[in-house]
Design goal:
The protein is α+β, with helices and mostly antiparallel strands. It contains 23 helices and 16 strands. It has three domains: 8-150, no CATH class; 207-497, no CATH class; 566-643, no CATH class. Helix 2 (31-50) runs parallel beside helix 4 and helix 20 packs parallel to helix 23.
Length: 647
């Protein structure tokens, strides 16, 4: 038996659900594939509107081959998150072009649900959740359309929304009580974190400048009390010692369970909420005290035991004025003096001259800073191209650069002058959100500075960027760059209303991160302890989930049973009509329909024939006729029964 073709409204809902599902994926799909999916959806919409037949299977096979070729060309393989999602997006679009039955329609809905889940492999923020919810409502409306008769789109969307809302209480019970598992519940593919942005473990000219154009949040910090002043907001990341003439990389390091320094001075307590970046460093404020479960390198960097692949929340205490590296090893100092042979001869000559002219190590550092200030170096996101000798080209030719140019040149100059030095990358500054009081650090706050080792003082932070662009340290990137720089739109200083909007959205997103995505085993345990379950195990959680689910389902059942529809009112009036006739000896048989009952009643009681036939006809039209019956008919039906008094 051949299934009936889809109605126009059914095809429309399937198209709407697929479009809402695929739209959020356009950001990370290949452009050619996104365009192809959009054209296929448009084509299917035209066919549904005009009633023309669907394309031949050979044409669909050719289109499928083209999609597979696009994925192969773009990703060079078919295994992993990105090519897998891309293939599913293409298959969903193609499936619509062969869908002409209810059975195939259900397959489209299932694919839509799967693609909505795929959105969370990229991001899990509130906007993605809202888009997934919208797509889920459209998919549920599609299922309702496949099962029922045609109704207006508003009624269908309302019914789907009500079904979703009815599931919210059960969802909350499962969210609160289901055992929390650190990390994903399924094994993610190897490339699941390939698209994360942030610092890398190397630095070359232009690397940090590219990050300066990103407004993505790197992490947030909520301080107990006032945050440190801008000049002390240095968030330490990779420490780079080895230099090959072009790229800086970390040297050999050793990690321990406790820091190699004795914390002292002013302490800042804060909670760090770190976005996933697929690296082990934690970007703490200089210099963090001992915290359980973390590692400390001999370059004073704070590390996690595993790469940060999920949002992490840490409570730390940092001491920015702590002296570090007072008794540094000879091997570390030797590494901090190495320069590759044959590179940057003019900078080497500058360092040698400064060493000759200076009265000690401190004076070398001071003279180097003065030289940078006198050179009138320009801080910019758009530096001029450099030659083979990057540092020479920056210091003596272009005189334009970003923080990585300043720090690299300063370290090379100090090393050439015999002062051990290295580059430190991380983030500097941050913007205080006035809505929730959280310090927000973005990728555009990525920064590089210098550490020099001075006898008796250890490693001293020196920021050469501050010598040429002090506004960068005090007021942030926007204040230090010209108006024409390629700043993120919401970071521009001349758009205060947009910045205010961003602050409000960031505060809302932070609450989502803390209370939804941040609902981890520790928070679940604390909540259950507050409810009287001090040490809940899986048996207790299972019992609580069962009890909570039973309560929710019971309340929903009671609500459904007490809910009265217009059909219930019609049946109650009809039952009253039948009861009045039974009272005068005219009982309706259980098998009799309303019209048959009225005909028999007309034979037995001719005096009631006209009224009984009119009421029975109205009941049949209201109970079994179109759903959009005339409201006046219902009012007439109820009034007729109210006035009906047989004797």
């Amino acid at each position: 038996m051949t299934e009936a073709r889809l109605r126009r409204d059914q095809s429309g809902w399937l198209l709407a659900g697929a479009a809402l599902t695929l739209a959020p994926h356009a950001e990370h799909l290949p452009l050619a594939l996104s365009a192809m999916c959009a054209l296929l959806l448009l084509w299917r919409g035209i066919l549904a509107h005009t009633g023309r037949p669907l394309p031949h299977r050979l044409l669909l096979l050719a289109l499928a081959t083209g999609m597979v070729a696009i994925v192969q060309i773009e990703f060079q393989h078919f295994f992993g998150k990105d090519p897998g999602i891309a293939l599913l997006a293409g298959l969903l679009s193609l499936k619509l072009l062969e869908t002409d039955s209810v059975r195939d329609g259900r397959a489209v809905v299932l694919l839509s649900f799967f693609m909505q889940l795929g959105q969370f492999l990229y991001q899990q923020n509130m906007a993605v959740a809202a888009l997934a919810l919208l797509g889920a409502i459209a998919a549920i409306a599609s299922l309702l359309a496949l099962q029922g008769s045609a109704v207006p789109a508003g009624l269908r969307a309302g019914a789907a929304t009500r079904l979703v809302l009815q599931g919210v209480p059960l969802m909350l019970v499962l969210f609160v009580l289901f055992p929390r598992v650190q990390g994903p519940l399924w094994g993610l593919p190897a490339d699941a974190y390939s698209s994360v942005t942030g610092l890398s473990n190397s630095m070359a000219p232009g690397d940090l400048a590219r990050l300066g154009e990103s407004s993505e949040i790197a992490f947030r910090a909520a301080f107990e009390g006032d945050p440190p002043p801008p000049a002390e907001r240095y968030w330490r990341g990779p420490v780079l010692t080895r230099f090959d003439g072009h790229t800086w990389r970390p040297g050999r390091t050793h990690a321990t369970d406790a820091p190699a320094y004795r914390s002292q001075g002013i302490a800042y307590s804060y909670t760090l909420t770190l976005e996933p970046h697929n690296q082990s460093w934690l970007l703490a404020l200089d210099f963090p005290g001992t915290a359980p479960g973390l590692a400390y390198t001999d370059t004073f960097q704070l590390l996690a035991r595993e790469p940060v692949r999920n949002r992490q929340r840490l409570t730390l205490v940092s001491y920015p004025h702590t002296p570090v590296g007072l008794h540094e090893s000879a091997n570390t100092l030797r590494q901090a003096l190495e320069l590759p042979a044959g590179f940057n001869p003019r900078t080497r000559e500058l360092g040698a001259r400064l060493r000759t002219e200076a009265n000690g190590t401190d004076d070398i550092v001071a003279r180097t800073i003065t030289h940078f200030q006198d050179s009138r170096l320009t801080y910019t996101l758009e530096p001029a191209p450099l030659g083979r000798d990057d540092v020479d080209s920056f210091l003596f030719d272009t005189r334009q650069g970003f923080c990585e140019h300043f720090s690299a040149a300063f370290v090379v100059t100090l090393r050439a002058a015999g002062v051990p030095a290295r580059v430190v990358t991380g983030y500097q500054g941050g913007e205080l959100n006035p809505v929730d009081g959280t310090l927000v650090i973005r990728q555009s706050d990525a920064h590089a500075w210098t550490e020099a080792w001075l006898a008796g003082r250890g490693w001293i932070r020196i920021d050469p960027t501050a010598a040429s662009a002090p506004l960068r340290i005090q007021n942030g990137l926007a204040a230090a760059l010209p108006d024409s720089a390629r700043l993120p739109l919401l970071a521009r200083g001349d758009m205060a209303w947009l910045r205010d909007l961003r602050n409000r959205l960031d505060a809302l997103d932070n609450r989502w991160n803390q209370w939804v995505l941040g609902y981890n085993p520790a928070r679940q345990k604390a909540l259950l302890a507050a409810l009287g379950f001090a040490e809940p195990d899986w048996q207790v959680l299972t019992a609580l989930m069962g009890a909570g689910s039973a309560i929710v389902m019971g309340l929903l059942t009671i609500w459904a049973l007490r809910r009265r529809s217009s059909a219930d009112a019609i049946d109650r009036s009809w039952a009253r009509f039948c009861q009045r006739l039974t009272a005068v000896g005219c009982e309706r048989a259980a098998w009799e329909g309303p019209l048959d009952f009225a005909d028999r009643l007309a034979c037995e009681r001719p005096d009631l024939a006209d009224a009984a036939r009119a009421i029975a006809a109205d009941y049949a039209r209201l109970r079994y006729g179109p759903a959009d019956a005339d409201p006046a008919l219902g009012r007439r039906f109820h009034q007729s029964i109210k006035n009906f008094r047989p004797r």
